[in-house]
Amino acid sequence: MSRAIEQLQADHRAFTRLIEHMESAMERCLQGDDIDLMLMSEFVDYCSGHADDFHHPLEDRVFDRLLARDPGLGPIIRQLEQEHLHLRWATRELRDMLEAVNSVDYVRRDRFLEALGEYLGLFHHHISTEEERLFRRADRLLTEEDVRQLDAWLDSAPVTAFARRDGNDFQRLDPLLHAVEPTTTR
Ligand SMILES: [Fe+2]
After folding, report:
1. 108 CA distance to ligand 1 centroid (A)?
2. Per its UniProt record, what Pfam families does this chain match (predicted)?
3. How many angstroms does the Cα of residue 62 sit away from the middle of ligand 1?
4. 154 CA to centre of ligand 1 in angstroms
5. Rg of the chain's alpha carbons, rounded to an integer?
6. Using 50, 70 and 90 to split pLDDT, how confident is the model at 185?
7. How far apart are the C-alpha atoms of 38 and 174, rounded to whole Å?
8. Residue 47 alpha carbon to ligand 1 centre in Å
């Protein structure tokens, strides 16, 4: 199997775990708990760096190869590519909102939680669609040359996509991320 596909599927397991954790955290906030700003900030950083700058660009390359092998995949691939753009935009919006969140400002707080809920729902559904509609068929469709090109991109991917913007570690997310073994260690 392509190492690129293995990496994407390992990412999906990690993202799914994070999404479920964030949904629980969001529920507690909706019940009245304070927003854990460190957790939220780490989640947005991880989505911005790992999902928007590494995972989705790699998927876009996989989609190009799959489309070349089966043009009938055009509609679902266009939908998923649009969702990548939407998720990138939504990550930026979450970051902007997070910077403005103040626990005593309930309007901003509620808007942030609403936007977070929409983001988590879209991301979860997006991952399921990719797994069910594309990745199950990827091995059968991709040629040896496709696999070589995708794995070469994986090897040259920007390491900065895996780092926090402030240079600190992912303290809150680390136990969750380490529970899912990535294919590529960076
Ligand atoms: Fe994905």
Report:
1. 29
2. Hemerythrin
3. 11
4. 14
5. 17
6. very low
7. 12
8. 11
pLDDT, tens digit (0-9, with 9 covering 90-100), for 86-139 = 999 999 999 988 888 766 576 688 899 999 999 999 999 999 999 999 999 998
Which pLDDT score, from 0 to 100, does residue 66 have? 96
Token digits for 58?
């790699």
Higher model confidence: residue 165 or residue 180?
165
Scanning the chain, the segments in alpha helix (DSSP H) are: 3-30, 37-46, 56-69, 74-100, 106-130, 136-141, 144-155, 174-178
Distance CA 69, CA 63 (A): 10
62: nearest Cα among 172, 179, 142, 168: 142
SS3 (DSSP) at 47: helix
Question: Which residues are within 5 Å of ligand 1 (an ion), measured at CB?
Answer: 130
The yes-or-no verdict on residue 147 having pLDDT over 90 is yes
What is the pTM for the complete model shown?
A: 0.89
**Domains along the chain with CATH numbers:** 3-163 (1.20.120.520)
Amino acid in position 138: A
